[in-house]
Design brief:
333 residues, alpha/beta, Rossmann fold, 11 helices, globular
């Protein structure tokens, strides 16, 4: 069975603008343009009906990767295959009219900023249906009310504006808008981060129910590994533009291989009755994503188990197996 989404050696390198200071700019005239490697040689697959978690600290490239997949940014290289169609070669400014546009939708991190304050909840949900399916009148009303019911949003709230809704209600509007076009892939960019814990649990149950009922695939981006563990089948760990580990969620949590993954999991709050959890403190200097050394491990400066060979050979993600890592020590061990 072919995967729904297949990403092959995807890159996004941003050229850095020259300094505004005229003397610094003159000093760089004879130098080549520097590039920030936001996403660097990323490859993974996402199967139909699967939920894949994407985790990593701020600045690791998660948001840039999401913008590439939703075709809001043009890649510097690589391929994005969606339903066996190479959507990565379609220019971002042209993708709004592409046939696959309706099949990839996103639920944004901040439900307040992502909703038009001039639109009612009804209009927010109806907007993509008007634009991409050309619905109107009674058909549009019935469709919107049906979607609102699916996400447990009371119909009496449809005439309210975003500022009149609670955080959980606004998120339900965002989810309703995301599933309105019956997409195959729903990208969730930290949707529960601004909610209370009790509301988070309700929303996570809703997302799990929708995935089962509608056959959706999720790419779930989050800083909260406990949330990822609850909702996802597999998890993908990103560090400075690279995927450093990927595998089944329980396998990653129980037997992490990459030192960075071990540090992330050690930092998670645990409520088990066992003994105290041993924390992993990451010390040292963060590598720069600007023109990084192609031969050195990106995690070398902070790795507690680094060796000299890690500076001479860039570890690549293993090509086979359900649990793969990009660490020379775990691969040789």
């Amino acid at each position: 069975m072919n995967p729904l989404l297949k990403v092959e050696e995807l890159n996004k390198h941003f050229p850095l603008t020259p300094p505004q200071n005229v003397f610094k700019r003159w000093a760089r005239l004879n130098h080549q343009t520097s590039y920030l490697h936001a996403v660097d040689n990323v490859s993974f697959t996402l199967n139909k009906g699967e939920s894949l978690g994407l985790v990593g600290e701020s600045g690791c490239g998660k948001s840039t990767l999401v913008r590439l997949l939703t075709r809001l940014l043009d890649p510097s290289g690589g391929r994005i295959l969606f339903n066996d169609r190479h959507i990565g070669e379609v220019q971002a400014k042209e993708f709004a009219l592409h046939p696959e546009r309706a099949k990839i939708q996103q639920v944004f991190q901040d439900p307040t900023d992502s909703l038009n304050p001039r639109f009612t909840a009804f209009e927010c949900i109806a907007d993509p249906l008007k634009r991409l399916e050309k619905l109107n009148g009674l058909a549009l009303q019935n469709r919107v009310e049906g979607i609102a019911t699916q996400v447990s949003l009371p119909l009496t709230l449809l005439e309210r504006y975003p500022h009149q809704l609670s955080g959980g209600q606004k998120l339900r509007v965002g989810i309703a808008r995301g599933i309105a076009l019956q997409p195959d892939l729903l990208i969730l960019d930290e949707p529960t981060s601004a909610l209370d814990v009790s509301v988070q649990a309700v929303i996570l149950k809703l997302l799990d129910k929708l995935r089962c009922e509608l056959g959706l695939s999720y790419l779930f981006v989050s800083h909260d590994l406990n949330v990822v563990r609850l909702l996802c089948d597999r998890v993908m760990v990103m560090y400075l533009g690279k995927i450093v580990e990927i595998g089944p969620v329980e396998e990653i949590f129980q037997r992490p291989r990459h030192p960075y993954t071990k540090a992330l999991i050690a930092a998670v709050s645990h409520f088990d009755a066992g003994g105290p959890v041993q924390r992993v403190r990451l010390q040292g200097e963060l590598s720069s994503p600007v023109d990084p050394d192609p031969h050195a491990c990106r995690f070398y400066g902070r790795c507690p188990v680094r060796e000299n060979r890690c500076l001479k050979q860039m570890p690549e993600l293993e090509e086979t197996g359900i649990h793969r890592s990009a660490c020379l020590l775990s691969q040789s061990g």
